[in-house]
Design a protein that fits this description.
five-stranded mixed β-sheet; three-stranded antiparallel β-sheet; 16 helices; elongated
Length: about 425
Amino acid sequence: MISTVRLTEIVADLGGERGGERGGDHASHMASLTDDELLEVVAVGEAVVRAMLAQQVRLAGEISVRSRTELGDEGLSRSQNFTSPVKLLAHVTGASARECKSRLELGRKLRGAVLLGGGEGPAPFPAVARVLDEGVLGVEAAAAIVKQCGVLADRGCSPEVLSLAEETLVDQTISCRLTADETFRAAIHLREVLDPDGAEPRDEVLQMQRSLTIAQSSDGMYRGKFALAPEQGGVWMSSIRALQSPRVAGPRFVDGDEYVIADGRTQAQKNADTVTELIARAAGADDMPRINGAIATVNVHITLDDLENGRGVGWIDGIDQPIPASTVEQLRCTSPTAATLFGDKGEVLYHGKAKRLFTAAQNRALAARDGGCVWPAATDHPRSAKHITRTNGFQTIIRPEEPTSTTASFSATSTIPICTNRHGN
């Protein structure tokens, strides 16, 4: 255990208080490092961090022991006027409650049980404790090993099996230089090998935790949270990856040597758009449930004047927040939408049927011809088509085609494919 004096000296050295080093000197020194020297400094620095975090975990374990419930007001956290050791540790260290909780849990699990006479039993995970104290094993990897070995213990595995699992994971992590994520996956795999009968009860717990909640916020956005069982997550992720793959849109052609990524969306925004598109496609499938004989339909209300002039707002049934006219036009091209048009006096002028404005076969033909969305450097798979007309000899106006059917007229020369990244607005 490093003394407080020595720790203070280390902090002073790392903080640059010795030798008059300041931020600018640090920056110039780092810039002068070669690539190999930079990586070496990072590796050595991480070793220092591992050693310090290991000590912090051990100290957190001692705080947990001194703050155990049976001590009541005589416990450390209560005597310091804190309701829990988590709040005490967070106050002292300034770390987050989540980080403090993980340190306390790991530190407590590495300690032996407190005996009736006040003594302490043998440490349950000696191999992890040893390499953790040596600074060889990281805290995250140690937590993964301890957690999965704890699951085996709860399932009634023998001490010999637990010891074998612990030593196997420790040796594999160190010898193969596994990351914390790789150690976690290895621990999961070994757990299933040693306890195959535990898969069913563990899955039952996960199935009971699955959920999805979504609600409209005051700003009009829909927000929620979800928890998916492993097989459900697999379906989601494989579908999202497939639809976001660059191969989906087909070949792309650019002018000259210039290639510009026009898609400025974040990954989170892409995920939201992808899931929405998946739901819209599924809703229009032939085998989906019908309501009064119709597929799931978005009912949009807008005045004829606003729709023709591209201004104003539209309203979707059941949603309080309005949408701009440009979004209404986009919905008419990309979603099963029933548009209700109103006159100046509120009279209903038109109520359309829920149908796409271009057939699926027409959309596929356009995508094959143009290689995807025609917007420069767009990478998304096209979901809709737009009709183009020319005025004054040079100005191009993009507007949705009139509703078509398999027998209606269709001019491929005056139609282009567009993705849903608002390129058709």
